[in-house]
């Protein structure tokens, strides 16, 4: 079948203006509202109200909402979308998977990371320390995201990065609640420091153990009591 004559219609219509940058910004904004609890678990989302407050079109809003629904942050019901409510059992399972996955990534980083990856990890570790010590909650969540993405890059495991992003999205509000506790923030920073020290020494076993302990401690604080599958990890060896 030949090409249509020059000047004839292809029958596909005009191409609309690219809206991806706006959609990404909107998605990030809505995600942060869920993470910090400003959009509370179980809260129903009213499209016309969100469009008015955020000054976006309904089309772009719906694209962003679909992305958050795919990540498990929103759920569809008879009255439309609402912020997902995570059961304790689901949260325990997510933390358990995170512990195993982060231990794997730590081992792989020790085995695979080149000098550039180790330097990059050092830089994001410094930024993360600053965020722990002085930054607001949003900045801390962003810094932790950068840290784990850099860790995954050094481990040469993009699959793990994708899985971690999705798991952390599901428990975003619990993570925010945990990190809002000053005592937990101090303990969490010490745990990260221990992990980075083991990674620098390329001690895969110790790095994996540090990663598991870090997730286990976060789970205990976020859930309010020891999580069933995460409470029997060994104590830190000083």
From TrEMBL:
<keyword id="KW-0805">Transcription regulation</keyword>
<dbReference type="InterPro" id="IPR000524">
    <property type="entry name" value="Tscrpt_reg_HTH_GntR"/>
</dbReference>
<keyword id="KW-0238">DNA-binding</keyword>
<keyword id="KW-0804">Transcription</keyword>
<dbReference type="InterPro" id="IPR011711">
    <property type="entry name" value="GntR_C"/>
</dbReference>
<dbReference type="InterPro" id="IPR008920">
    <property type="entry name" value="TF_FadR/GntR_C"/>
</dbReference>
<protein>
    <submittedName>
        <fullName>GntR family transcriptional regulator</fullName>
    </submittedName>
</protein>
<dbReference type="InterPro" id="IPR036390">
    <property type="entry name" value="WH_DNA-bd_sf"/>
</dbReference>
<dbReference type="Pfam" id="PF00392">
    <property type="entry name" value="GntR"/>
</dbReference>
<feature type="domain" description="HTH gntR-type">
    <location>
        <begin position="20"/>
        <end position="86"/>
    </location>
</feature>
<dbReference type="Pfam" id="PF07729">
    <property type="entry name" value="FCD"/>
</dbReference>
<dbReference type="InterPro" id="IPR036388">
    <property type="entry name" value="WH-like_DNA-bd_sf"/>
</dbReference>
